[in-house]
Amino acid sequence: MKTLIAALALSLTTFVSVMTGTARAQEPVWIQIAARPTLQEARAEAQSFAARLPDVSGFALGGGWYGIVLGPYSRNDADRVLQVYRAEGQIPRDSFIAFSSNLGNQFYPTGATANTAVEPAVDTPDLEPIDPAAVTQAPDTPDEAAPEQVQSTLPDETPAEARRSEARLTGEERKDLQIALKTAGFYNAAIDGAFGRGTRSSMSEWQTARGYEPTGVLTTAQRKALMDEYNAPLISVGMASVRDSRAGISMQIPAGEVAFDRYESPFAVYSPSGDLGAQVLLISQPGDQGTLFGLYEIMQTLEIVPLNGPRERGSNSFTLEGQGSDIVSYTEARLANGEIKGFTLVWPAGDEDRRARILAAMKASFARTEGVLDPAAGADAPQDVDLIAGLDVRKPRLSRSGFFVDGKGSVVTTADVVQGCGRVTLDHEYQAEVAHVDATTGVAVLRPAQDLAPMGFARLASSSARLNSDIAVSGFSYEGVLGAPSLSWGSLQDVKDLQGNTGVSRLQLSSQPGDAGGPILTKDGAVQGMLLGENAGATQLPEGVRFAANAETLRAALAAAGVSASDAAADVAALPIGALTRQANGMTVLVSCWE
Predict the structure, then answer these.
(1) Using 50, 70 and 90 to split pLDDT, how confident is the model at 66?
(2) Burial of 335 (0-12, 13-18, 19+ CB in 10 A)
(3) Which one of 35, 286, 377, 447 counts the least CB within 10 Å of its CB?
(4) CA distance linking residue 63 with residue 8, whole number of Å
(5) Cα angle at 152 between 146 and 153, to 5 degrees?
(6) Which phi and psi angles does 380 have, rounded to 5°?
């Protein structure tokens, strides 16, 4: 390094005065890393450094010397770069800070004009310095054989030109390249925009995998190829920005797969327009926390929000993820300044990689703008109890009645309602587990996933009611459409069925399919049994003939499930109709089977 010291001595006086002058405080600076006494030697040295470091230039120093420098940088950035490169051994230990006034005509890169624009701090490799061993040097002469995977066409840029074009990238563009490399599986370090050891190595690996020469520096065309590869999922669905002034929302949506359909408060509905069956809802409505919480509950009743998946509700926001066999959906909404805004993405199952990219773009681009959807929007649309804002409400496969048998919420119901179910609920809200099922007697016992506190529960009769005495069944005759159970009256015809089975009673009763599983009560409120489903056999019985599992059959089923039955008190007077109705309603529950 004697030559470098000699060159340093030529400008030492000027350098000291510059360091102490306030006029130079904002001047771009360089890092001088070498000096050579001839132009040929200096040019070769510059090419050598440029093969493994960015921002390499060459300038005449005067007195017959030629310097190789890095930069330009702000002074703070230059200090960090100098420290890192020295520590890594990538530049000589006696490299130093130089100023533009120390530099003469530029000789490298050939034909270049001196760049005096200061590079932003994020572009400096202070966090991740380059590892020369991780970068393959480009051939210096045409005679050197290129690797077999190198493309046969000429490169779009030389390594030096690639570095110069790379130097013009913004910090966000550099981060985008790191993200793209990480998504492609070539990069696993921090997304910081600093192109150092890890980034250069991953670039080289990507180039090799894609058939390019592994220089560790991406050309303009290669950067475009990488980003096109990364953005292919978005390009394939026509991601585009939409600004909905009525909803007061701006965001990116997969415009190639959905198109605006209608406003139906609280949604702006973008229905499927492509082959995927995707759907987007923009959520927009005025309201408060109560409105937000109500929307959270309502969204979970829709077919587009499958039951399986995480849910999270905070004081001013919620997210819902639903994963079904056919679709995957994501919903988020937030309350701010009296307005609830958010979105839902519905996507076909089995396309998770693309869905994840699309959802990330939608989240990142979502912005609230002025305005909120009129609560009356869509008020003229046809009304349907199976729709909410024009969207299908999730319906169970089957609903029947049941009744509570203890204070913890254990339930007795019919065996057919729990067979082949993906999920069993009580009153559409509480999940239940099957504790016991007996297909022979037609009785099932359910245990709630969490303890409940029912308004009332059954007391089983200790003896059978008299023949021809009045009985009533409490049940959801129309499978929950009316929202509350009703009483249907009939009479006890026999204490055995038509085959002589004493565990089943025969009733004269007009009922609906939804009443099956409901409690059979006498006027004193004692539960005589449970209504069984209609006979599905080949023999068609006369209208009004129904059967019930009696109290003893229910006791046996409860014992098998580990549930203690409660007995009705003896010699209790008949209850007024109103009191009997309230008692029956308190114990009767809607049992639903979901796919």
Answers:
(1) confident
(2) buried
(3) 286
(4) 11
(5) 120
(6) -90, 5
The 10 Å Cβ neighbour count of residue 218 is 27
The amino acid occupying position 330 is Y
Cβ atoms of 399 and 428 closer than 8 Å: no
Beta-carbon neighbour count of residue 303 at 10 Å?
A: 16
Go through the chain and tell me how many residues it has.
595
H/E element holding 59?
A: strand 56-62
Strands 504-509 and 430-438 come out as unpaired
CA angle 303, 307, 310 (to 5 degrees): 125
Span 97-132, pLDDT tens digits: 888 877 888 989 876 655 555 444 333 222 233 233
- Amino acid sitting at position 401: S
Unique residue bearing structure tokens 């008299």: 466
Q: What is the pLDDT of residues 259-299, one digit of tens each?
A: 999 998 899 999 999 888 999 999 999 999 999 999 998 89
- Reported as half-sphere exposure (CB side, CA atoms, 13 A), residue 489 has a value of 7
Give CA 247 to chain center in angstroms.
23
pTM above 0.90, yes or no: no
What integer best gives the mean pLDDT of the chain? 82
Residue in this structure with the two tokens 């139906």, named with its chain if needed: 264
Local structure of 443: helix, strand or coil? strand
Q: What is the 3-state secondary structure (H, E, C) of 118-154?
A: CECHHHCCCCCCCCHHHCCCCCCCCCCCCCCCCCCCC
Q: Using 50, 70 and 90 to split pLDDT, how confident is the model at 41?
A: confident
Q: What tokens does 461 get?
A: 């009769």
Select from 235, 237, 230 the least CA-distant residue to 210. Answer: 230
Task: Give the C-alpha separation, 485 to 585, whole Å.
Answer: 6
- 33 closest CA partner among 20, 44, 46: 46
Beta bridge partners of 554: none
Binned at pLDDT 50, 70 and 90, residue 223 comes out as very high
- Burial label, 576 (beta-carbon count in 10 A; 0-12, 13-18, 19+): exposed
Contacts of 22 (CB under 8 A, 6+ apart): none
For residue 501, give every residue at least 6 positions away whose Cβ sits within 8 Å of its Cβ, in sequence order, or none: none
Q: Which CA distances in Å does 386 have to 198, 290, 390, 395, 396? A: 56, 23, 9, 8, 12
- The structure tokens listed for 37 are 């006494």
- Closest by Cα among 63, 77, 64 to 31: 77
Question: For tokens 């949506």, what's the residue?
Answer: 253
Which has the minimum average pLDDT: 155-159, 394-398, 433-437, 438-442? 155-159
CB neighbours (10 Å) of residue 143?
6
Across 20-34, 97-111, 369-383, which has the greatest mean pLDDT? 97-111
Backbone angles phi, psi at 6, to 5 degrees: -60, -45
**Strand partners of residue 162:** none
Q: Which two tokens stand for residue 343?
A: 């979105």
Q: What residue has token string 């585009």?
A: 240
555 membership: H or E segment, kind and range:
helix 551-560
Classified as helix, coil or strand, 209 is helix
Q: Which residues make beta-bridge pairs with 488?
A: 473
pLDDT at residue 390 in the model: 66
